[in-house]
Design goal:
The protein has 226 residues and is an alpha/beta fold.
């Protein structure tokens, strides 16, 4: 029986074969507006919690090729305090090539060295949990993220909450599931974000106009305090 880790790898491999994924990645308007919107919220969250970023230590779980790392570097986080984990070998190679100055961790995030437990002010995940279909593995990963987090730190979460009827390889993660995964939290705050991709990709430069309606947003940013 295959592990959920192997299943996740196979799901990502299947996505490479779908032309719609390639076309979506080239939708400049949607990608620009969606990324700018969530990055602005990340900045607000981080700046409101930390007066100084000099010693702030962050880990991204499932960092992909590092698209989020540009923001953390731009905010002024020190290279030695930025850690990025990636499971997929091809993405990890590109991540390592693009960011040789930071700390990169290859493989299953659940296997990150225990010496790093309680090391991070922020543990961040972006669209990782929706690619995990096995609930027990979600629990395992959530517990590992919690162990890596310092007391007083935050899990910074970005993911979608609705299922995609055209993609059986992903499953939306709703607020009540997040609360259950991090049941020992001190406080959780949620912010609805990201215009529904099927709409956002069609309306292109009119994204900001449609995005004023919260009921058209399909993702959430979560701030989960330890």
């Amino acid at each position: 029986m295959k592990s959920e880790t192997q299943n996740v790898i196979e799901r990502y491999e299947r996505r490479k074969e779908k032309s719609v994924v390639d076309n979506n990645s080239k939708n400049f308007y949607f990608n620009h507006f969606a990324q700018s919107e969530r990055e602005l919220k990340y900045i607000e969250i981080i700046k409101s919690r930390y007066d100084s970023l000099d010693s702030l230590k962050i880990l991204e779980i499932g960092a992909g090729t590092g698209i989020n790392l540009f923001l953390f570097k731009k905010l002024g986080l020190k290279n030695e305090n930025i850690y990025a984990n990636e499971l997929l070998s091809d993405r990890y190679k590109l991540l390592n090539d693009l960011f040789p100055e930071i700390n990169t961790l290859k493989g299953d995030a659940c296997e990150i060295d225990e010496n790093l437990n309680s090391s991070f002010d922020i543990v961040f995940q972006s669209t990782v949990f929706t690619s995990i279909l096995d609930y027990d593995f979600k629990v395992k990963l959530a517990n590992k993220m919690w162990q890596l987090l310092k007391p007083g730190g935050i899990i910074l979460w970005y993911d979608f909450i609705f299922d995609n009827p055209q993609n059986n390889d992903v499953k939306g993660v709703k607020k009540n599931e997040i609360i259950k995964l991090f049941k020992n939290h001190k406080r959780i705050q949620f912010y609805k974000t990201t215009l529904a991709p099927p709409i956002g990709r069609r309306v292109r430069k009119f994204y900001p106009l449609f995005n004023i309606f919260p009921f058209l947003r399909t993702h959430i940013i979560g701030v989960i305090e330890k």
